[in-house]
């Protein structure tokens, strides 16, 4: 990778895979989540897991007459069997998936810890855009189920809130620590929750200024550094490093060389 063919662009880094198409659909796969972005040409033309994209949050395919439906009922509603398949209806009475969304009494002991995290002032630009209540409840359940703070079920809630914050126009903080959901990057690169997906390379150092894509989390060069690709591996360089490379066209950066 990257891979280009027939209007499809596929890219991969240490944390996600991105599929971009010329028909206005972008899909990003993370270890614990998938995100689909579509253009305005699809307004009122989607359904099922993509929602109906009509701008009205009170009307969606995940509820029926104002009541949230269970994942089992939702799947049954949208299943499309092949002509020769004989699909047996699942037992909806045995479906307890909605019950697990309610915070049990044993999880309530974690409420203050979870609220303190999401309501910290460092998340203020996020909570201005997104109600954290759903994530607080999810985090409380995580702490009931998970054995330690680096379990994927714990980190996934934080990660999703951070991504949704970026998507809504907020700026998430760099909340990860070596002890909490740590991410590791290649040498010379640093992890950032809110970086431009358009990489500033050493040959084109202003790429991110023209970027129209939404900021994402991942590994980036530190501020003031640029990305230089050695074979296919990225390496971050300072201006002085660039100007010392005998094989590099340094005249592009002569205004920055010291």
TrEMBL record:
Keywords attached to this entry: Disulfide bond, Glycoprotein
Entries under PANTHER family matching the protein: EXTRACELLULAR MATRIX GLYCOPROTEIN RELATED, MUCIN-2
Name of protein: VWFD domain-containing protein
Disordered, as annotated region: 74-101
Domain VWFD: 1-88
InterPro entries: Mucin_vWF_Thrombospondin_sf, Ser_inhib-like_sf, VWF/SSPO/ZAN-like_Cys-rich_dom, VWF_type-D
Coiled coil ranges: none
Keyword Glycoprotein: yes
Annotated SMART domains: C8 (SM00832)
Residue spans of biased composition, Acidic residues class: 86-101
GO cellular component: a single term: extracellular matrix
PROSITE patterns the UniProt entry points to: VWFD (PS51233)
Pfam families assigned: C8 (PF08742), VWD (PF00094)
UniProt cross-references to SUPFAM superfamilies, sorted A to Z: Serine protease inhibitors (SSF57567)
